[in-house]
Structure of 2-isopropylmalate synthase:
Amino acid sequence: MSSGDHLIIFDTTLRDGEQSPGASMTREEKVRIARALERLRVDIIEAGFPAASRGDFESVRAVAETIRDSRVCGLARANEADIDRAGEAVAPAAAGRIHTFIATSPVHMEKKLQLTPDQVVERAVAAVSRARNLCDDVEFSPEDAGRSEPDFLCRIIEAAIDAGATTINIPDTVGYNLPEQFAGLIKDLLQRIPNAHRAVWSAHCHNDLGLAVANSLAAFGEGVRQIECTINGLGERAGNAALEEIVMAVRTRQDEFPCDTRIEAKELLPTSRLVANITGFQVQPNKAIVGVNAFAHESGIHQDGVLKHRETYEIMRAEDVGWGTNRMVLGKHSGRNAFRARCEELGIRFDSAGQLNEAFQRFKELADKKHEIFDEDLQALATEAAVAL
Ligand code: KIV
Ligand code: ZN
């Protein structure tokens, strides 16, 4: 089964993102975020884990009742009660999905589940079959696939597809893999599993080593057609792959990838801000795409370059991802061109080159004392320079 002609974006901000300690959201907040994700044109919204609590069940159901243009998914462990609860929660959706998972790594099977590999396969098959009776769209994840035996993964995935799984998701649950390794695992599984072509393949990467986006993109290169990610990279521990980074990497480097996403990129910044405000997890200033400095230039060399031609130091347009424009920050590294350009924007005119020089000199002295020079500072500087000459 193919995804058609685009990379499917599966957003799990409301499920894995919410598992970030301190990020829990109310039903109303989840619905607001889900609406923003729908505007962003996310293909699938994982709205929560219905068996986790009554509140989570109600949130998933409310999202399923509200959203019409994205598929709504509920997570379930591989047991009957979880699957039935997830099925009930997503039933009102225009398009629903049940996502069931069970751990497959030796350490998880032995120490956490205390099940033999045979028992794990049995549970996976029973869970997928039960889910397929409730929903025609079922995703199966072998949890901790990144640390599982490839032979065992082949066995359980083949059985899950035979049982009716329509999407196979490969999680690097603890963010342990390196990009070539994760890509190699995907390639190996796709080659060795005889019925692999009957499912859409997906990657779900965590960021414990800061490699979630790199690993997801490496998997895309090897044939996955769905990437699971979250707004601002929110998620357990160090988080999940950041949706905005995946989307803009694929769009900016289309030459390197087989297809694009359907994401409405202008909605990236508003959605990022909404998630940050609701969860209280503020975005670091140097965060790619949505950090306040992502399109800001401070050094004179860079400002001069961008003023002459933006592509000298910009690989994307700020406007394309929701910013009003790029930003020239005036500080001690800034040069005369950026200083003059900002003054002109503010309507400050210099009567002579001498006056500009004097004002620029004063600006440099002030910049040594302050982190950032604001518009009011420039007005004051210009007046002082005019008086001084
Ligand atoms: O990280 C993980 O393994 C998960 C699964 C439930 C897909 O979030
Ligand atoms: Zn996860």
User: Anything to note?
Assistant: The mean pLDDT is 96. The two ends are 75 Å apart (CA to CA). The longest strand covers residues 96-103.
